[in-house]
Amino acid sequence: MQFRYEDVDAEDTPLGRLTLRRYHAETGEVGYEVRIDGHFLMASHGAHSEQAMAALARERLAGEPRPLTVLVGGLGAGHTLRAALDLPDVERVVVVEIGARVVDWNRRYFAEVNGDAVSDPRVAVQVGDLADHVRATAGGVDLMLLDVDNGPGWLAAPGNAWLYEDEGVRACLDALRPGGVLAVWSPQANPTFRETLRRVFAVVDEVDTTERGRAVGEPGDVIYLAHAN
Asked: What pLDDT was estimated at residue 63?
């Protein structure tokens, strides 16, 4: 399929230059995508695995039902945020996004595909570096859903490498409440990252979304799910 692109807006961030592009498909479809320093990050389309991540993490949450606090790393097109808000018992969702204009882009350009998720009263958006937020968070998160870069093996921003190393994974564990779950999106299996998770977390699952993707005509991805009990 052929696409025609046009730049709509851009923003320089500590991790690189974010660009919003509008695309026109030969089928007549119109959508938007975000790139960092020219590398694709996310778009209106192709979100089956991002949408599945929240439910997969919720299934593994231990303990009695309670109001849930969710941390979403990377706002993107708002697909993961929308899925988190649609979970039962979610009381608060903190979204950490490096680009201030990405928040505006969600309201102006992605609201149609994410149900205007950033305007939900349960949502608090913090513009800043996810690594800094994770370091400063201690034991208050039930579900941590990370969809930054293009997964742990394909960094859109080199400054995010810390998140996928032992120190970063331990910081994620420290940010979780007992029984909490860390979920990390990846475009493919990453044995190195899987072993890093296993050095820190008691239980690690690697979920291939190929079957889910096939149902909507999209390629499969991988979701890593880690919990301490």
From this structure: 81
What is the pTM assigned to this prediction?
0.92
For 92-139, the DSSP string reads EEEEEES-HHHHHHIIIIIHHHHTSGGGSTTEEEEES-HHHHHHH--S
Q: Which two tokens stand for residue 83?
A: 């899925």
Burial of 19 (0-12, 13-18, 19+ CB in 10 A): middle
Q: Any bridge partners for residue 16, and if so which?
A: 13
Q: Which helix (H) or strand (E) holds 196?
A: helix 191-200
Rounded to an integer, what distance in angstroms lies between the CA atom of residue 24 and that of residue 2? Answer: 9
Architecture of domain 48-227: 3-Layer(aba) Sandwich (3.40)
Crossing angle, helix 191-200 and helix 166-175, to 10 degrees? 50
Confidence (pLDDT) at 1: 60
Tokens 């889910």 belong to 212
Q: How far apart are CA 25 and CA 142, in angstroms?
A: 39
CB-CB contact of 127 with 97 (8 Å): yes
User: What is the mean pLDDT of each successive set of 10 residues along the chain, which is 229 residues long?
Assistant: 87 91 86 90 81 93 89 94 96 96 96 96 95 90 89 73 93 95 93 96 91 66 89
Contact 23, 5 (CB under 8 A): yes
